[in-house]
Automatic annotation (TrEMBL):
Membrane topology: Multi-pass membrane protein
Subcellular location: Cell membrane
Associated pathway: Cofactor biosynthesis; adenosylcobalamin biosynthesis
Gene name of the encoded protein: cbiB
Annotated TM spans: 52-70, 147-166, 282-300
Protein source organism: Pseudomonas aestuarii
Name this polypeptide is given: Cobalamin biosynthesis protein CobD
Role noted for this protein: Converts cobyric acid to cobinamide by the addition of aminopropanol on the F carboxylic group.
Phosphoprotein keyword on record: no
Taxonomic lineage of the native organism: Bacteria, Pseudomonadati, Pseudomonadota, Gammaproteobacteria, Pseudomonadales
């Protein structure tokens, strides 16, 4: 029950305060990871073995430290709560997504493009209103899995060291996991480890989205469309999420100057401004569902 109550406390802290506007541990970690990459991948010539060594150097000492601190009597429970609170991005997700939906409703397409650009890596400068709504909805569904549910999952599996291991690995994937000349070999380990850590959480998230929306359609989209998506974890999450909402996602998108024709996800009309908020509600509802089930399980076991 201790971990369950810690999870509830961390979610409550995130809802009340969100991410720190000043110093954040992940920002400090990112700076450290940059220095490690510059040493281990100088000139972009690092091999896979260098990427593995760099990943271990960046992640394992902090994971072991979190595990040790979590064992300290009384103080350890606060460490557990803080570790999950620092890893969660639930309130932040809403703070990024809601201004996009609001700008679209007000007809301010330029502002909507600017705000959705904070959420996605694709080029947003030429997106029409439908393209902005699609990008925002996709980002909410995918980041809900990566920044919220997966953190909760690994916290419940292994406490503070579990969530620290996951969140740092996910951060390194975002920094090193690119398929370009600099990171294709060096970032291989970061990308594969993140894929492995997200495999089971992503499928639980897809099931959660399906249960909270158009269940039959979501399950069918997951089964038929997810295998066509490049990412083994984003595919199930976004296909099930799009089906649960009854909208169409995917399609052409420009990344770093190159156009990619992505498979369609979901079924129904193209996403609109309100679908960004509906996607947020799927994430919020999923968190409440997970916490309710965990509390019931804890009470049953007590």
């Amino acid at each position: 029950m201790s971990l369950i109550f810690a999870a509830v406390a961390a979610v409550a802290l995130d809802a009340a305060f969100g991410e720190s506007k000043g110093w954040h541990p992940l920002v400090a970690f990112g700076r450290m990871a940059e220095r490690i990459e510059q040493r281990c991948n100088a000139g972009g010539g690092g091999w896979r073995s260098h990427g593995v060594s760099a990943w271990c150097l960046a992640v394992l000492p902090l994971t072991l430290l979190a595990g040790a601190l979590a064992q300290v009597p009384i103080f350890g429970w606060a460490v557990e709560v803080f570790a999950l609170y620092a890893a969660l991005g639930l309130r932040s997700l809403g703070e990024h997504a809601q201004p996009v939906a609001r700008a679209l409703r007000l007809g301010d397409l330029q502002l909507a493009r600017e705000r959705v650009g904070y959420m996605v890596s694709r080029n947003t400068a030429e997106l029409d209103a439908t393209g902005v709504a699609r990008a925002g909805t996709e980002s909410v569904l995918e980041n809900g899995s990566d920044a919220v549910f997966a953190a909760l999952f690994w916290f419940l599996v292994a406490g503070a060291p579990g969530v620290v291991l996951y969140r740092l690995s996910n951060t390194l994937d975002a920094m090193w996991g690119y398929r370009n000349p600099r990171f294709e070999r060096f970032g291989w380990a970061a990308a594969k480890i993140d894929d492995g850590l997200n495999y089971l959480p992503a499928r639980l998230v897809a099931l959660s989205y399906a249960l909270l929306g158009k269940t039959a359609l979501a399950l069918r989209c997951w089964r038929q469309q997810a295998p066509q998506w490049d990412s083994p974890n984003a595919g199930p999450v976004m296909a099930a999420g799009a089906g649960a909402l009854g909208v169409s996602l995917g399609g052409a998108a420009e990344y770093h100057g190159e156009w990619h024709q992505r498979p369609q996800l979901g079924q129904g009309p193209p996403a609109q401004a309100r679908d960004i908020e509906r996607a947020l509600n799927l994430v919020y509802g999923g968190v409440l569902l997970w916490l309710a089930l965990l509390l019931l399980w804890g009470l049953y076991r007590a």
